[in-house]
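Ex. 9. Protein: DNA topoisomerase type IA Zn finger domain-containing protein.
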Amino acid sequence: MVTCLILQKEKYIILGTNSPKNGLAKCPQCNAGQLMIIRSPATKKRFIGCSNYNNGCTASSPLLQKATIRRTKKLCDTCFWPLILYRYSRKQKWTEQCANIRCTTRKTIA
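Predicted structure tokens for DNA topoisomerase type IA Zn finger domain-containing protein:
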């Protein structure tokens, strides 16, 4: 069950399952927008991006495409991006990781 909110000109779809309408966390780059899980209809890929993109914020990071992703309310101590939980199958344990691909703690934390 996925609820979608379509942005201007239907370029991107904000996924409502794991990304609330108010965002995952405050954007650490512009401090004005919210980081959200977004899916591009053209490439069908998920990524985290800032809701303030139209005003020039370029904060974005790709997500794991085949994994099940859950958000956490914790932030990374280094870059202040949200930490996410992911797993590829039901038999695997949930693994916690920083959502920012450029973070120095990108290796799995848990």
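Check your answer against this statement. The two ends are 28 Å apart (CA to CA).
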